[in-house]
Amino acid sequence: MLFHLIIFIIFISLEAHIGFVYPAARYPYLDFLETTRTISPCGMPRGRNPHYTTFAVGKQYDLTWTANHDLHTGGIRITLLDPNENKIQQLLPQRANAWISYPERIPVTATLTFPQACRGCVLQIERQALELNFTFHSCADINIEQSLQNNDQIQCSGNGRFTNNGCICQKYFRISRRFPDFYFPD
Fold first, then answer.
1. How many alpha carbons fall within 13 Å on the CB side of residue 174?
2. Rg (CA), the chain
3. Domain check: are 11 and 56 in the same one?
4. Cα 25 to Cα 92: distance, rounded to the nearest angstrom
5. 3-state SS of 53-119?
6. Are both 119 and 30 inside the same structural domain?
7. Record keywords: Signal included (predicted)?
8. How many Cβ atoms from other residues are within 10 Å of residue 117's Cβ?
């Protein structure tokens, strides 16, 4: 039994399909959620105490996700959903119901600008696996504000103190060099 569990864990770590890194994916973070066996649109419901990443309208952000192999054919797309998980707008590609296909390796980052304010919304990323007739999906719970206030909760993800020089981390947290607006537990 333990042997099967170890093999399963190794398989999952090698078979990363799609999962948000920034903004943080919905807990529990799983990157193999596909639409035929999980609930839409995210693979799992929003938790009782979701972690929201806050963005500002009109500011560019580098979103990042896992896509560690190229075994599947097809493309990806990113969609903004309202608090009830209904589609507001497809953000990548901007043409509705389209997919971005890549001839080689699927990228793990994209720069996006959010077009409108939205509290309690959801960012969904999908990856096709055309040869299996699957679509893998991952979601992040987000807030999009007209502008961000310079306060600890907004600017420092609630895990630091905001000063004129930036955020000072709370104990047991560190700021990411790659994502300067996001804190990770040590």
1. 4
2. 17
3. yes
4. 18
5. EEEECCCEEEEEEECCCCCCCCEEEEEEECCCCCEEEEEECCCCCCCEECCCCCCCEEEEECCCCEE
6. yes
7. yes
8. 14
If we measure between CA atoms, which residue out of 141, 31, 34 comes closest to residue 84? 141
Q: Are residues 65 and 135 in the same domain?
A: yes
DSSP 8-state class, residue 145? E
- Long-range Cβ contact pairs of 39-48 (< 8 A, separation 24 or more): 40/137, 41/79, 41/81, 41/85, 41/122, 41/124, 41/137, 41/139, 42/85, 42/122, 42/124, 42/137, 42/138, 42/139, 43/137, 43/138, 43/139, 46/122, 46/141
Alpha carbons 4 and 8: distance in angstroms, whole number: 6
pTM for this entry: 0.74
Of the given ranges (29-33, 60-64, 99-103, 106-110), which has the lowest mean pLDDT?
29-33
Q: Write phi, then psi, for 104 (nearest 5 degrees).
A: -120, -130
CA distances from 160 to 39, 102, 148 (A): 35, 39, 16
Number of structural domains, the chain?
2
